[in-house]
From TrEMBL:
Transmembrane feature ranges: none
InterPro entries given in the database record: F420H2_bilvrd_red/Heme_oxyg, Split_barrel_FMN-bd
Record keywords: Oxidoreductase
Provenance organism: Kutzneria chonburiensis
Protein name (record): Pyridoxamine 5'-phosphate oxidase family protein
Length: 163
């Protein structure tokens, strides 16, 4: 299992690009899951990093969370609003697992309220998905080339330059 904290230590370039794009869009990302018929589904979401972990939380009963309950694999893509990708772009792949820890839910809700004013305090989150990262990539464009940074567990980041 690779937590966000572990990932950001071994893949700092990709983590920095993800963080920059995640922040620039008000935490908006796009989540890819697999529907029950095996077709892909893309859903907007606002993942959060809290206590060293990447959390994929949201409204219970939505199709994206039903997908993850059936098949925990996902891809999370930062929202790209610039066709030149001048600020970079990042994708994270992994699986999720549901964490039912009421003390954690309370800390998360308090942090969410302090940072955003959105009040979920006193609620239990079900599901409450933590991300186990299995690979990642990021793109940066400039100077007449594109750099693709790639990470897999047990390996350092590597950059592939495309002209």
């Amino acid at each position: 299992m690779t937590t966000w904290q572990e990932f950001s230590e071994v893949a700092p370039k990709i983590a920095a690009i993800f963080h920059r794009r995640h922040t620039a869009t008000g935490n908006l990302c796009f989540l890819a899951t697999l529907r029950s018929d095996g077709a892909p589904r893309i859903s907007p979401m606002e993942p959060r990093i809290f206590e060293g972990q990447l959390w994929l939380g949201g409204m219970p009963g939505t199709t994206k969370f039903l997908d993850l309950a059936r098949d925990p694999r996902f891809c999370l893509h930062t929202a790209t609003v610039d066709t030149d990708v001048s600020d970079g772009d990042a994708k994270l792949w992994g699986t999720v697992y549901d964490v039912q820890d009421l003390d954690l839910h309370a800390r998360y809700a308090e942090n969410l309220f302090q940072e955003t004013g959105f009040d979920l305090r006193g609620q239990r989150f079900s599901p409450f998905y933590a991300a186990d990262l299995t690979s990642a990539s990021a793109v940066e464009v400039g100077g007449g080339h594109m750099d693709v940074t790639i990470w897999r567990p047990g390996e350092p980041e590597r950059v592939v330059r495309k002209h």
